Each structure stands twice: as structure tokens, then as C-alpha cells.
Amino acid sequence: MSQVVTYVVSYARTVAASSSSRLHSPVAWSRKSVQEGYYDLEAGETERTPLLYVRDNGRYRAKSLHRANDPNRVHPVALGLMVALLVFLLIGVVIGVYLLLLTVQRPWPVSHPFFLVERPAWWQYPVALEAASLDRLAVTNVIVLHTDSEDCLDQERCVRYLQNTERSCWAAQRDHIPYNFLIGGDGVTYEARGWKSQHGFVDLPGRNTTLVVGMIGNFTDRQPAEVQYAELKAFITESIRRLSLSPQYRLHGAVNATQPSRDGTIALYSQLERWPHWKGFVARDQP
Fold first, then answer.
1. pLDDT tens for residues 187-203?
2. What's the rounded Cα separation, in Å, for the pair 2 and 4?
3. Could you state, in order of their start, the residue ranges of all structural domains in the chain?
4. pTM for the full model?
5. Which fold has domain 116-123+133-284?
6. Element (H, E) at 252
7. 3-state secondary structure of 165
8. Residue 212, φ and ψ in degrees, nearest 5
9. Helix (H) or strand (E) holding 21
10. Which stretches are transmembrane (predicted)?
11. CB 178, CB 169: distance < 8 Å
């Protein structure tokens, strides 16, 4: 009997020592011991993470040493790859735009800047421009002719000429000034009907495929000023840049159908005939 009591006391001391060691140990590993017959309920059967006991107000509490991954966190390597891809895309866009600009052919190097006075700047009256729309994708011709009038060497006189011509056309035909653009002796381009409307010359061909440019002045026996020729070049280049004129455009002069030889020899065309894209004359039914 005494041996049994001794064995029970010894077994109780062993269990108590084991429990005390588990409670006061700084690290407890979750495990299932078949031999010792106990299981850590705090960790769970599948838990394999060590628990760190920290002291909190005199009591110990378990803290996991393994931190769960944040699902919204972007890995630094992935972020770097995305930034590099974005940079490469931007470089590709810039190169593409540059190559596209190179494909726009210019007829000549232009040193003279392009000056434009738009229609609202010289015509501020109630009668608005009403003209058929121009198919910009089909504009392939430029016809140049002179106005057979007095010159204008400054903006004031050129604006006065446009205003008087607009009034005369409206009073006679209830129509607007027929040119798309006019170039004055001051080296400035004046917008008449512009790039978006058809010209108003009933005796000139290709109303839906042509821009008509008038050189203000009479240039039968003398050439326009160099600044007018330079502005005409700048106008053609600007029209191509705005995609309002095909780079493969055709340049023409206009002659009277009844006297083509006389109009074909006027001084205005002596220089234009040496320009690139010159394709000869078109006939007019009226002088």
C-alpha cells in the first residue's frame, strides 16, 4: 500500500513539474505528444508557428512570430517592372509621333514665317460665311491667280480691299468673296473662305478638291514682291501641316480660255513655273 502511495505522489510531482515548465517557458511549440498525453489547444492541430510570450501588465500573452502577408501589398520588383514598361511605352509613342512627322513632305525649306489674319478679324458684320463644305481629305490642287487690282502694301489697305470685295460680291450676287485665301504685299495671308469651304469661282474646276489663292495686285507685266512669293510657300507648307492639303498636291495657274497664250505669259507665273509640283494652267471661262 505504501508503495502505491509513493508511486502516486511521484507521478503527481512529475506532472506538476512538467506543467510549471510549460507555463513559465518563454517559447512554447505546438505539438501533439502521444507519449505525454497532452495537446496544445491554443495552437490548433495544424499550427506550426512558434508563439512568443511577451509580458503585458504582469501577465504573459502569446504573440506569433510569423506575420501574415498583406494581400494589397505590391512587391517592389513588380512595381519596378510596371514603371519600366510604362517608360518604354511613352518612348515608343514619342518615336512614333516623330516618325509620323517625318513622313509629312515639305515642298521646300521655309525660312519665312506664316502670318494669318482670320476672317473674323477683318469682317465683323452680321452676314456670316455660308458656303459648301470642302472635303479636306480630297484637296489636291492649288490654283494661284492675281486679283488684277491695286496693290496693298500694309495691313490697313489689304483689309480695306477684302472688305470692299466682300461688299461688292454680296451686292452683286448675294455671295461671299470667292477666294479661299489672299496674300497681300505686306507678306500676310488673309483668310477669305478658308480651308473648310469651297471656293466661289464658277468657272474654275474642282471646287471640292481645290484651294484658290489670290495674289493681291496686278501682276501682268511685273512679278509680285518676293515677300508675297515667300508667304505663298509658307501658306502651302502650313496647309500640308494642317492636313488640309495633300503633300502630293498640284500647283496651277489660271488663264482665260479665249486668250490662253496672253494669260500664260503674265509675270506672276514666270517664277511659279519653276516651283515643285507645278502642273500647268487651268482654263477660265471669264477673264
1. 999 999 999 999 999 98
2. 5
3. 116-123+133-284
4. 0.62
5. Lysozyme-like (3.40.80)
6. strand 250-256
7. helix
8. -105, 125
9. helix 2-24
10. 77-101
11. yes
